[in-house]
Design a protein that fits this description.
Blueprint (H helix, E strand, L loop, with lengths): L19 H12 L4 H24 L6 H12 L4 E3 H8 L3 H13 L3 E5 L7 E5 L1 H16 L9 H17 L6
Antiparallel strand pairs: 1-3, 2-3
Helix pairs in contact: 1-2, 3-5, 3-6, 4-5
Length: 177
């Protein structure tokens, strides 16, 4: 079986003399018609690349990725510090395989431990360790100091952005609003 090819993701500064997404939108209009949705989606996807790269860079000194950080925060927010893996996947909106991988990496780092779910003989809980709590607090301080890599937006714009994307999430069925 051949290894799967993964295209490189450009996340650093491009310093282009033009906006490539705007250029693509102009070309799109000529070839296909209205381009607003394409330009918006492409901008969102590029923003995702940029933010994920910057957040992972901020979290690297803590030996975390943003996905692992989110799992630790979720466990920190839980009443007991422990949740079933299925609940973690549901809350983080990720596939069960991703949860298993994330929890395994956190467990190897000593930030969580797996334990049998006392309410379900077959289920497994992930429980945050004291080291995990310390790590999430330090990592959160770094993310907050960097405004989660979004210091170019004021509070009003961030709230507006949240509201705009909530519409998309509701339409996708993430939750009822």
């Amino acid at each position: 079986m051949r290894p799967r090819y993964r295209s490189p993701v450009v996340t650093g500064q491009l310093n282009l003399p033009f906006d490539p997404i705007e250029r693509a939108a102009e070309t799109w209009r000529v070839h296909f018609g209205p381009s607003s949705a394409m330009a918006a989606v492409t901008s969102i996807m590029r923003a995702h690349q940029i933010l994920l790269s910057q957040l992972d860079t901020l979290l690297k000194p803590h030996d975390l990725t943003f996905a692992r950080y989110e799992a630790l925060v979720l466990l920190t927010f839980s009443k007991t510090g422990a949740l079933p893996l299925s609940k973690i996947g549901e809350r983080l909106m990720v596939h069960p395989t991703s949860v298993t991988n994330t929890v395994s990496r956190l467990e190897r780092a000593g930030l969580v431990r797996r334990m049998p779910n006392p309410r379900d003989g077959r289920g497994v809980l992930a429980e945050i360790t004291e080291r995990g709590r310390e790590t999430v607090h330090r990592a959160t301080a770094d993310l907050m100091a960097a405004d989660f890599a979004m210091p170019m937006y004021d509070e009003a714009r961030l709230e507006q952005m949240f509201d705009l994307f909530r519409t998309l999430r509701v339409a996708a069925g993430d939750f009822q609003y």
